[in-house]
Structure formats: C-alpha cells, structure tokens
Design brief:
The strands form four sheets. This protein has a six-stranded mixed beta sheet, with no helix packed on it. By secondary structure, the protein is an all-beta fold. The chain is rod-shaped. The relative contact order is 0.17.
C-alpha cells in the first residue's frame, strides 16, 4: 500500500448539457370593414403565420360566412361548400406567412360576426373573427294641410321627410304633383326640391 502522500491527484470536471426543443406554431388574424352598406362589396383579409422554429404541416384554413353575407370571390380561390370556404395550404415554413382575401356582399342590415380558423398537424389551431355592422337609410314622409280653405286662398302644406335608418340618406329629392285645380304661387303643378343629405334620425 502506497504511503498517503504518494496517492495520485484526482481531477474533477464539471459540465452541463442543454437540449432545445423546437416546434411549429400557427396564428391567424382577420380584418374587415367595421361598417358597410347593403349590396356593397366587403373585403376581408386573413393572414396565416408560423412563428415557430420549424415548418407547420397540413395547414388548413376555413372561413364561415354568417347568414346575410353572400360569397362573391376569394384570392386564392377557396373550395366553397354552402357558407364555408376552405383553403388547403400544405406546408408553412418557420417564420412564414400567407394572406387570403374574401369578398362578400350583405343582403340585410345588422351586425355580422365572420369567423375563421386555421389548423395544422400536431394539434395546432387558432381562431380569428371580424365584425361588420351593415347600415342603411330609411325614409318616411308626412304631409299635413288645413281641412278647409276659402276659394283662391293660399294653402300651406307642411311636408316632413325623416331618415329613420342608421345611415345617411344622400341625394334626397322631393317631387310633388298637385291635383287639378291647384297651382303653386308660380303657376306650376309639379314641384321638385333638392333635399341633399339627411343624417340618420334627421328630418
């Protein structure tokens, strides 16, 4: 047995190992007009992105149009089944993004929530939606006059036009045709007045 002072020196080594796990990710955003009018073309833009470190596979986007919105077109072209639009986008590279556009028209007033969803392999999924309020003008008219007047006396008519809708009424024109026996002060039987624009609720 060697003497205690003859033992060899021991060298201790310290170290660490780090593992980095990488995975894909998937995001979707959707933007569209906040307001619109009946029969206007509404454009919605969807953006699908992969903020992950590797490609996302079998990426599929669906967009469901609510009742009251009618599909017009999309870029790139979607597969259309009823009110559901589908795009099979395949692989989306790490850090990559793709955009889609959808055009639709509104057939009625109201607030429409238009949802979209993206899915990919490994259970990846995300949702987005855009909300559009469809507005319209609606005009009502009332006309009042005295029940009786003396022959050749001027008759004062009061005509009130009201916009009862929730959007401005533009290029409003009032046309009135007087019956036989009545003429305006200038001798006319037909009167046309330019009202121009009536804001919502305005008379």
């Amino acid at each position: 047995r060697p003497a205690e002072g003859d033992l060899p020196a021991l060298k201790l080594v310290e170290g660490a190992m780090t593992k980095r796990w990488v995975a894909p990710a998937i995001d979707i955003t959707k933007v569209g007009p906040a307001t619109g009018f009946i029969n206007d073309t509404l454009t919605y833009t969807l953006r699908v992105s992969n903020p992950g470190a590797i490609s996302a596979e079998n990426v599929v986007v669906t967009d469901t149009l609510p009742a009251g919105l009618k599909y017009v077109s999309s870029t790139p072209a979607a597969t259309v089944s009823g009110s559901t639009l589908t795009w099979k986008m395949g692989s989306l590279a790490a850090g990559g993004a793709k955009s889609l556009t959808v055009k639709a028209t509104a057939s009625k007033t109201g607030t429409f929530v238009n949802p979209a969803k993206v899915t990919a392999d490994d259970g990846l999924a995300d949702n987005a939606q855009a909300t559009t309020k469809i507005v319209a003008a609606a005009l009502t008219i009332t006309k009042t006059a005295p029940a009786e007047v003396t022959l050749c006396e001027f008759i004062d008519y009061e005509i009130v036009i009201t916009n009862t809708g929730n959007a401005p009424a533009t290029n409003v024109v009032l046309e009135e045709s007087l019956p036989d026996g009545l003429l305006t002060e200038s001798g006319k039987r037909r009167v046309t007045s330019q009202v121009a624009t009536l804001a919502a609720g305005e008379s």
